[in-house]
Design brief:
Helices cover about 25% and strands about 30% of the residues. It is an alpha+beta fold and about 350 residues long. It has two domains: about 5-115, Rossmann fold (3-Layer(aba) Sandwich); about 125-335, no CATH class. Helix 2 (about 35-45) links the parallel strand 1 (about 25-30) and strand 2. Helix 3 runs parallel beside helix 4. The structure holds fe (iii) ion (FE). Fe (iii) ion (FE) binds near residues 293 and 311.
């Protein structure tokens, strides 16, 4: 992407994120990844009068193998973490999500924005205040609900007992101390009680498996009891899911993780075909998707910190909070949360 365009969209991002004169913003990168993003953020922040720094970590040592959440190059570098804790805002170009280092940085009051998706996607899904408002309406509804029920015509019927864990909304920018967000994003989620998820989830053709970055072709049936997956059945994708999960040798990977729905009318379900190497944020965000996840819930304050994590955005589902319809057949039905025309 053209340097000037990249700087302009980073300026839009930092402006929405409330970056202002005198603030200290640290851009965190690793190896030679996204150095163009780092330059663009530095230039944009400078234009807003912020004190900008770039912290560049060495690339990970070879041989660290499979990608897993919760690991970052900061773990062995406490001085770097201390420096990041002194910032007003950290722009994370590495993807620190779920790491204890990121949690410490946020706890010290620094807000954290992750930006790792392909630049054309950052440009297409620029955050807006309007989207934030609709995400916050979703947060308000979700945070007071006691139960969530998800159904589909493919046979999904699962109930999450809520009220134990907080609700999180992601809208792609962050202007509050200690708050994290991810650009791009537009969805809300919470987690069920540790022993409070029961029922069946049936993945249908076209549902999305992240981090595989693939679409389901044959139905996959998850049987869930007391917050844990008991059984996964189906064809090729079911075998791939089980094989992948087995590699972690951690039964806690079968725990039920976050659950919620997407709200960005600009995000495309077919996005993986355009950005096959991305993180799948477009797929987590597309309008009316219902996304469930397996694995850790430490992000929400829960005890499960397994590295085995799948996010699964589904199409055409219905979602009810305390029996009130929120999503029906893949469409948002709460008026204030619907896309503006
Ligand atoms: Fe997730």
């Amino acid at each position: 992407m053209d340097r000037n365009v990249l700087t302009e969209i980073c300026l839009h991002q930092l402006t929405l994120s409330g970056v202002h004169e005198g603030e200290k913003v640290i851009v965190l990168s690793q190896g030679s990844e996204r150095l163009d993003y780092a330059d663009a953020f530095l230039a944009a922040g400078q234009r807003l009068g912020a004190r900008m720094y770039h912290m560049r970590l060495p690339p990970p040592l070879p041989g660290n193998g499979a990608w897993a959440v919760g690991e970052s190059g900061l773990a062995a570098n406490p001085e770097a973490v201390e420096a990041l804790k002194q910032a007003d805002m950290v722009v994370d170009l590495i993807f620190l999500l779920f790491s204890p280092e990121q949690m410490a940085i946020q706890a010290a009051g620094a807000r954290v924005l992750t930006a790792v998706e392909p630049a054309p996607l950052l440009a297409r899904l620029l955050p807006t205040k309007e989207l934030r408002e609709r995400v916050e309406i979703g947060e308000a509804l979700l945070s007071k609900a006691k139960t969530m029920r998800i159904t589909s015509r493919h046979g999904t019927d699962v109930i999450y007992r809520l009220g134990v864990y907080p609700t999180v909304g992601e809208y792609g920018y962050t202007d509050q101390p200690g708050r994290w967000d991810h650009w791009p994003a537009a969805f809300v989620f919470t987690g069920g009680a540790d022993d409070g998820v029961d029922g069946k989830i049936v993945l249908a053709p076209g549902d999305v498996l992240l981090p595989f970055n693939t679409y389901v072709r044959e139905p996959v049936v998850y049987t869930i009891e007391k917050g844990f997956v008991q059984d996964i059945r189906g064809g090729l994708e079911a075998e791939l899911i089980k094989s992948y999960m087995g590699e972690f040798k951690d039964p806690r990977g079968m725990g039920m993780s976050h659950v919620g729905w997407g709200l960005d009318h600009r995000a495309q379900w077919h996005g993986l075909t355009q950005f096959p190497g991305g993180m799948g944020m477009e797929l987590r965000s597309f309008y009316g998707n219902v996304m469930f996840s397996t694995g850790p819930n430490n992000e929400l304050g829960g005890p499960n910190d397994t590295a085995c994590h799948l996010d699964i955005p589904m199409r055409g589902c219905s979602l009810f909070l305390d029996d009130e319809p929120i999503v029906v057949d893949g469409d948002i039905v709460v008026k204030e949360m619907q896309q503006s025309q």
